[in-house]
Structure formats: structure tokens, C-alpha cells
Amino acid sequence: MNHLRVGDAELFRIEEMIDTSFVATDFIPSFDEAALAPHMDWLAPNHYNPATGGLSLSMHAWVVRTGRHTVLIDTCVGNDKDRMPRAHWHQMDTPFLDRLRATGVAPEDIDYVMCTHLHPDHVGWNTKLEDGRWVPTFPNAKYLFGEVEYEHWLANPSDNSVRQNAINDSVLPIVEAGRAEMIRDGHDVDGSFTVEASPGHTPGHHDFRLVSDGKDAQFTGDALHHPVQIYNVDWSTSACSDPLLAAKSRRRILEKCCERNSLLLPAHFLTPSCGHVVDAGGGEFGFDWGQGE
Ligand SMILES: [Zn+2]
Asked: Which domain covers residue 282, as residue numbers?
């Protein structure tokens, strides 16, 4: 678990698991190990294992206590979900909620659940299984879903069963329970967060920008999956619905982080899972891991 501060806001990272199933050349079609030579001293073997060609991704959620509200950003894969053929996400049984409680936050304390997009590893803990039904895990929370994203999945049911099952068991039950609120680009949450569209990974993907006491942080979901994409901004993934648009959004995020001196908080970077983007000139970027200061 990471514990950090952004201005007056207190942040906790709640890890669900480390997923080592991603084959670099499958997940990132443009992947080129030679391009990573300058970074291999810290990339290998944790973030990228040259022996197996595997990328490691952390599955985690961020808790943010703004002083007024308690927010949970992106809710991982979840327990008891039918996720075949992705066997290692299927019928999971992790102590995610115990890890949440260990930070002093009970599920009942969450005021907002905020999803950057509606893929299975960002909505899973939205619901839990109770007497054979999927019910909201966070009973007092308002769940904020992107309207563009939600409408996309309604209009275009996925033939990928892992993705469609997540809509069915982790998104629709929230809407049916009356706990969902649809949000758009520019939406303000609690006077602390602003929704910033970053489409491409999915059609309605967005970031959440946090500003607190003059400090800035950017929760970027899957606009970046892995730190190699900071050094190779055009490396979109095979999970991106529009790889070119995803790359454009990724570049804009990195530029914004430099302009605002924002802490970058992606959904899948291994611990410390955050850092400051460095403008290396010529459209290139670097990364200072950790909170800094
Ligand atoms: Zn993801």
C-alpha cells in the first residue's frame, strides 16, 4: 500500500494483485525491446522481464480523502466474477476490502466511486455478490460513469465475454440500484476533481484531475498502462479501441502533467505507482518515480 498526500488530500493505494500475464509484443504491437535499452536497469525484471517477454501490471484502486469526501477511483477486477476465458480474473477471492478497511476507510464511508472507463479491471468492486445478486459494494456512494462510455457499451454490446460480463454484473446493477450518475468532460466533483476527456483506450475514457491546496494530480486510468509508454508515447495497446487517438490523448496528458507539475497516477504502474513527468524536449518525456518533495 502507498500512502501519500496531494495538498490537503490524503491518498491510499489499494492493491488487488500484480498481473504478469501480459506478453509485451501481444499487448503493445509496436513493442521493441531495443528501444528500452537506456531504461533496462530499472525496468528489468520487475516492470518487464526480458527472459519471458512479460510486462507486469499492478491492479489497484486509489482512495482519496479530500477533507470533505472520500473517493475511490477505479475498482479493479473484483471477487466472484465470471471472467472466463481470462482464468486468473475468474472467480477471484482477494482481501481487497480488508486492505481498504486497513486504511481506516470502510465501504460505507465511500462517497464517490469514480471510474475512468468501464473495462473489467476498473469496475469490478463496484458490486459484490449477496444472496445470488450483484449489489453495490459501497452502499452510500454515488458512482460516476462517463456518459459517452456508458452509451457506447449500451449501443455496442461486446462480443468479448470478459468485457460484456463486467458491464452486466458491475455497471448495470449500479444503474438499476439508482446509484449511478453520468458525467461528461469538464464535470466538477466536490470542488476537488475535474473530469478531463482522454478518449482512445475506450471511446469515453477520461481522467480525473485533483487540485488541492495548490497541488495537482492526474488519475489517468488506462491512458497509460505501463511506464514504457512514457518513453514511447505512440505505443498504444491491443486493448485500445482507437490506438492513434489513445496516443494523442497520452501525449496531451504527459504535456499537461509537465505544464501543471502534476503527480501522474496511472491505474497499473507497479509501486510506487506514481511520479512526475519530465519534459525531455523534442516531444520526449522522462519520469521521476514517487511523490517527490
Ligand atoms: Zn486497466
From this structure: 2-289
Model-level pTM?
Answer: 0.97
Q: Are strands 133-136 and 127-130 parallel, antiparallel or unpaired?
A: antiparallel
**What residues are neighbours of ligand 1 (ion), with CB under 5 Å?**
121, 222
| pLDDT one-digit tens code per residue, 2-27 | 899 999 999 999 999 999 999 999 99
Give the CATH number for residue 18: 3.60.15.10
Per DSSP, the residues of 174-221 read: HHHTT-EEEE-TT-EETTTEEEEE-TTSSTT-EEEEEEETTEEEEEEE
* CB neighbour burial string for 162-191, b if at least 16 within 10 angstroms, e if fewer: bbebbbebbbbbbeeeebbeebebebebee
Residue 58, strand partner residues: 18
Give the three cell numbers for residue 166: 463486467
Whole-number Å distance, alpha carbon 60 to ligand 1 midpoint, is: 9
Distance from residue 192's CA to the centre of ligand 1 (Å) = 24
From the CA of 225, how far away is ligand 1's center (Å)? 7
